[in-house]
Specification:
With 381 residues, this protein is of the alpha+beta class. 29% of the residues lie in helices and 26% in strands.
């Protein structure tokens, strides 16, 4: 495999892949239409919450494996870049509010124990009564059916993550070009990707990686099913409270509260059911987030809101991310469609893609993430 590559997209997936490709000796150029990480990446709250082990779909396995890699990935990145990404293995409590949820949680804990999953010598997942959960989090107000405690859940600063990845890439001589719009991929008469066309010029390389997130559908004329990667709008709130209410992330009824030491509290998040690239946060969404947040922290009101914002997740209507090489053109690769789990899956995705491109090695079976696969009826993430 030749040694130069253009990465289209400077979000967490594109930058992580660029970092790992450069570590393997490739000459890397990142082209980002706006500012690196300014879209889905920094709109994310940086929550690394694993799928429960009873979910055994390939996407869930990809996500859990990546989260298990994160502590070492973060340590390496911080040491190399000199930027603290504020990685914190805080854990989370899933408040259970029905017998059905309780049954699912019990099965997840049983499966985790069968796999002997641990964090610092303690079970990765465990069941807690309301009283036991309240000992950990005294401000917890309800948990009729108890809680599931996950010690694997972590959090990081997405702004610092982007800063660290850019710094690491710069140290490895990765060329990062921001505010550059890629209009097309150059494919020669032998069906080999040779570079890209921007609004101003042509840039050549031996390989091209499309990692443009929710904007990857721009290249659906080359790879048809990139048209199935579309924006899933998500909205969240930042509140300023007098004190930190919870040390762990608290999840209840589809919403979660993430509390920082200075009282800054985040409530997340909504998910659009249809493709949506709008930037505004509607009053309906704010009311929904406040109502959901009040189940966790009853005292919060709209007056506590510091800001409300929206991000555009690259949702895959194919049922999984697209990872790997393209059948239509040699030396053309894709890493996109990670949806809500882009931050979570960045370390493992970068490892998979860099090994595939730089060394020609498939670390996992990429069939479930196949770039040229057909949409499955009724498929969903």
């Amino acid at each position: 495999m030749e040694k130069s590559i253009i990465v289209i997209g400077g979000g967490v997936i594109g930058l992580s892949c660029a970092y790992k490709l450069a570590q393997k000796g490739m000459q890397v150029k990142v082209l980002e239409e706006g500012a690196c990480g300014a879209r889905a990446t920094t709109a994310s709250l940086g929550v690394l919450m694993p799928y429960v082990p009873t979910i055994e779909k390939p996407t869930a396995i990809l996500q859990r494996t990546s989260i298990e890699m994160y502590k070492d990935f973060a340590k390496e990145l911080v040491e190399f870049s000199g930027v603290d990404i504020e990685f914190e293995n805080l854990g989370h409590l899933q408040v259970l509010h029905s017998e059905k949820q309780l049954e699912k949680a019990q099965k997840a804990v049983e499966r985790s124990n069968e796999l002997d999953k641990q964090v610092n010598g303690s079970p990765a997942f465990e069941m807690l009564t309301f009283e036991q959960a309240k000992e950990l989090e005294p401000n917890l107000t309800e948990a009729k059916f108890g809680c599931m405690h996950s010690r694997l859940t972590a959090n990081l600063s997405t702004e610092k993550l982007v800063e660290a990845l850019k710094a690491a890439c710069n140290k490895l001589n990765v060329e990062i070009l921001e505010n550059v719009s890629v209009e097309d991929v150059i494919i020669d008469e032998n069906n080999v990707a040779k570079g890209v066309k921007t609004t101003d010029t042509e840039i050549f390389a031996d390989n091209v990686l499309i990692a443009a997130g929710a904007y990857s559908s721009k290249f659906k004329h080359i790879i048809g099913n990139l048209g199935e990667i579309l924006s899933q709008k998500g909205e969240a709130l930042e509140l300023k409270l007098e004190e930190r209410k919870f040390d762990r992330l608290i999840k209840m009824a589809g919403f979660y509260a993430l509390c920082k030491k200075d009282g800054t509290t985040f409530i997340g998040s909504t998910s659009s059911r249809k493709p949506d690239f709008s930037e505004d946060v509607k009053d309906k969404s704010i009311n929904m987030l406040i109502k959901g947040g009040q189940r966790i922290i009853p005292s919060i009101t709209k007056e506590d809101i510091v800001r409300a914002w929206a991000g555009h997740r690259p949702h895959s209507y194919l049922g999984s991310p697209l990872l790997g090489k393209c059948d239509e053109a040699k030396n053309l690769f894709v890493a996109t469609g990670h949806g809500k789990i882009g931050i979570c899956t960045a370390p493992f995705t970068a490892k998979i893609i860099s090994s595939l491109i730089a060394e020609g090695e498939e670390l996992i079976d990429l069939t479930p993430f196949r770039v040229n696969k057909l949409k499955q009826p009724g498929s969903k993430d």
